[in-house]
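Hi C.,

You asked whether I'd gotten around to modeling the 181-residue construct. I have! Everything is below, sequence then structure, no commentary in between.
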Amino acid sequence: MGRKPDQVRLQFQKTEELSNKHGECYHVCLHCVAAKEELAKTSKEEAEAFVIPKIRGSVVALRAHLQRCPHAPEFRMAQQASVTLMEKEAAKTAESASPRQESGRPPITQEFIDEFLQALVAFQVDNKLPDAFIERGSTVRLFECLNPDLVKCLPTRAQLKKLRLEYIKTKADEAAVSPKE
């Protein structure tokens, strides 16, 4: 009876060293053990310096180790896939012109950024939006559609709060100075 053993345990070897008072033992990754054995064939000094990590026996800990283990096949395949993807992206970028050149957009100046931030704060105040709206994915995607360079200029929540308070103070000062009809 009981649960079916998790397949992740097949990639680990149980040691005799106890990890706690309840009789649970440490495990070692078979991929790391094999890597150390391969290293021992070429250089004994490097193999002695290579430390095989001991992992507690929980399935969560074992999976976490496999995700970051450089000797696990899944990790190596993911690294190779990301490298080839990055190479393809670099080739594609080199072949085509930059989006700014295609769209004819001028580079963003500090004056434009200040104007953009003022408009953003005015939009926030007029629509009674919380400071957290700037961190939402939909807000970032909206600005990416308008101009991808604007995303780099988006303020943090704390910066937006400071700008909003300055904006409200400025509006209050303008209202106090202007004559009421």
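If it helps when you're writing up: Residues 97-101 have pLDDT under 50 and may be disordered.

Thanks,
B.
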